[in-house]
Amino acid sequence: MISVADFNLTLNGKAILQQVSVAIEAGEVFVILGPNGAGKSSLLKVLAGEFEAYKPAVQFHQRPLSSYAPRELAQLRAVMPQAVHLDFPFLAEEVVSMAIPYVGKAEVNRRVDEALALFDVRHLAQRNYLTLSGGEQQRVQLARVLAQILTAAKQAEQTGGLPPLLLLDECTSSLDLAHQQQVFKVLRRLARAVKMAVVAVLHDLNLASHYADRALLLSEGKIVQQGPIHQVLTQSTIEAVYQTPVEIIERPDRYPVIVPL
Q1: Which member of 7, 59, 211, 236 has the lowest number of beta carbons within 10 Å of its beta carbon?
Q2: Can you tell me the mean pLDDT for 6-12?
Q3: Domains in the chain with CATH codes
Q4: What is the reported pLDDT for 152?
């Protein structure tokens, strides 16, 4: 679906990413892991096309990312950055509706309601976005980006069209334990059901262990390990990259738990 090969990113004379190759497929939950400053968010921005000069290096559905018109790309790819700032007191439902092309008021309202319900924020629809807690705002933003591409995802499922891509940068950083689990259950279910690809930058290794199919682990802008999640998250690799001792508790028929010591 989306890929870069032997990619290097230099900003202001500093090497941010070095010789990075990654290919993400439809229907999978793919996580980008690594310590602070490893280049995780930068890689996500590259895949999102935020660095104009580097867009030709990114292949999206076997085409250079630079070949897509903005409208076409918006229908197939949605991005949620680490922080989204609003200066005006929009209602939560209005924030979500901004991601939906106008298809009649009733249909827009239906799509907004569907997206809000997925992340348990339907009851906040009429609330001023600026008065919401950080976690509530984050869930509204998740509803917004999903609403942007959910129609394309369903059309792809029904007609065999191109499946969409969701890029998320630390999308659960403000969420409580229950909502972290809920969000990734929804994302994994949709990835499976409509062949949407989900790419998420994460710090929580246990969340990654539970829900990700594959992972890329970065350190100082270089790939340390890449592959199936439980081949990446080994004790020796985690301890080497994060410089802290851990224990991995294996559980039959369940995901391993990573415990810092």
Answers
A1: 236
A2: 94
A3: 2-260 (3.40.50.300)
A4: 76
